[in-house]
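Predict the structure of Alpha-1,4 glucan phosphorylase.
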Amino acid sequence: MGRTLQNTMINLGLQNACDEAIYQLGLDMEELEEIEEDAGLGNGGLGRLAACFLDSMATLGLAAYGYGIRYEYGIFNQKIRDGWQVEEADDWLRHGNPWEKARPEYMLPVHFYGRVEHAATGTKWVDTQVVLALPYDTPVPGYMNNTVNTMRLWSARAPNDFNLRDFNIGDYIQAVLDRNLAENISRVLYPNDNFFEGKELRLKQEYFVVAATLQDIIRRFKASKFGSTDSVRTVFDSFPDQVAIQLNDTHPAMAIPELMRIFMDIEKLPWNKAWDITKRTFAYTNHTVLPEALERWPVDLVEKLLPRHLQIIYEINQRHLDHIASLFPNDVDRLRRMSLIEEGGIKRINMAHLCIVGSHAVNGVAKIHSEIVKTQVFQDFAALEPEKFQNKTNGITPRRWLLLCNPGLAELIAEKIGEDYVRDLSQLTKLHEFVDDDLFIREVAKVKQENKVKFALYLEKEYKVKINSSSMFDVHVKRIHEYKRQLMNCLHIITMYNRIRRDPAKLFVPRTVIIGGKAAPGYHMAKMIIKLINAVGQVVNNDPVVGSKLKVIFLENYRVSLAEKVIPATDLSEQISTAGTEASGTGNMKFMLNGALTIGTMDGANVEMAEEAGEENLFIFGMRVEDVTELDREGYNAQKYYDRLPELKQAIDQIKSGFFSPEEPDLFKDVVNMLFHHDRFKVFADYEAYVKCQEKVSELYLNSKAWTKMVIKNIAAAGKFSSDRTIKEYARDIWHVEPSDLKIPPPNEPRDAVEDKTPNGTAA
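Done. Here is the predicted structure for Alpha-1,4 glucan phosphorylase.
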């Protein structure tokens, strides 16, 4: 979520008033804003997307709730010591959190372990351990519409009789100390991005948020007029018309068997009725196609922790496979491929398959990704129910990612096309009229230069390096992962360095290369990549021959509040994942909206950015998905590129020989070995095209006017990538609700009309 203060002032239309009031108190608002901690309660793009979606849902007047876990410790703080990443706990609540309100009156029990009893009266899950879920509510204000939605985060609490009720031998002190075991559930965020770690505590977290949330939703449904009660029993027929639940990846997949358990064991609905309601309630968004990221929980673990849920999953699977077998008799291989249970070795539950079978809609997050989902990853399911599969291209909120972080540019745009674009970003197309307006071109360039000077000052303060603010700011910020190919950027840096040294007198377009991002603490290769970037920076930044022509900065502790500083100052945005691996990307959109040009592969949303702006207005290079597939078919041979490309050979030889690590010459042997023998992401295959494309970038940068014209064309084409557009599509195609642009009257004005005559709205 990042910081909340400035976002709240902007959405409430109070920023100028607050700035002025604080100024009159002799204080500086920016200094105040810098005191607030980031709320970093998720990993990379997946967590940030949810935050943008909450902003858009409130701005569109949808009655929507964001549910999650109130982690005591969020994503770790990253320190760089001697070039290595070191993790520190993110104690973000140390000074309290003024934006949250605890709601103990809505506390709910969550059950674990125990066993299943089958009786004539029905099935019961008994002898469980109970953990309480305490909700904390954070307001989510819409933009200038007097709507405030809720983000409800659950915190784990031990019940007061924890360890004291059962056969206790009287060790009261130990029993109280053991309360920590229950409360550990919401202690810390697992810091993996695009990687599945099958730990029991993680499964507990996933079920914890699901069980608390579903009870909350059902309580709210029963309290509304829709939960009409037949004598005692609630009628749930209207449930899917009143409630839509969007599963943000498979992490909350246990919601499917949990809702089935509630309907059958507690509300006594028959299977078919429960299953029909469940399917119509849930929709699933897939966020990655990397096999190592797909959740596959061991059956033994689920049986121990959630025995009733395992039974329900088996029953879902049995009925699912019976259906497949009726359509494709004797096709045992298809049954194996489509089963929710993977046999062979240890039995596992494929959570993506559970989500597909248990949802009425499945979507990818960019056109190319949704195609890959349909034709490759889940092709058997798509063949069965093609109408279930959709695309919803990701977006970003223009409030945080333009108004808040780049007020200079936002103001400039408003002067030309008015202020309405903030709520309807498609209006940015009106900027096309000004592409040849010399004054506007100069003003856009001036705003960018001011942002660069400001960020250069920040860098010089934090990193004690002199930054040439007229150099090209070449920025690569995102989680560190092999598929995102920070290594390819690193090879380009080394190549530029070698070119400068080979011919110091030759014209060279100066660059400040900024790379930032966190590596998962257990991801060895990602940590080696950070060390390599820092080692290369040490050499480059201290070589007098290079001077101010080339600087390399590794941005420590990349997070939302730092993104808000670096993105507006960026000239060149690096989006260079191997085609077919980045589901969408959203950083790419933030850079586009803030006046950077993109160098990128035809991957994720880059494809649609090129479609919107014209491919000639992005620097597109490298293999397409088809080329990658073809290369896989014939076999990728890294050695071939090393032998053919002298500059690549020189760079690799330098890394291998210890040129960048003289005190430990074979420090990077694992990296080099990976690049030659098991590089799944084919860095060498795109190196030549990447370097050539970078030469075109430098050439254009020399012509400031032509560069800025291209920038304006990009900003004018960025309208599609508002999360407002994304959420309108979810609302229309999946949730079946109407966004309302009705501005609710402010609380100080009397409300007219009758409260209960509201249009029927689904709670998403």
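Residues 438-463 form the longest helix (26 residues).
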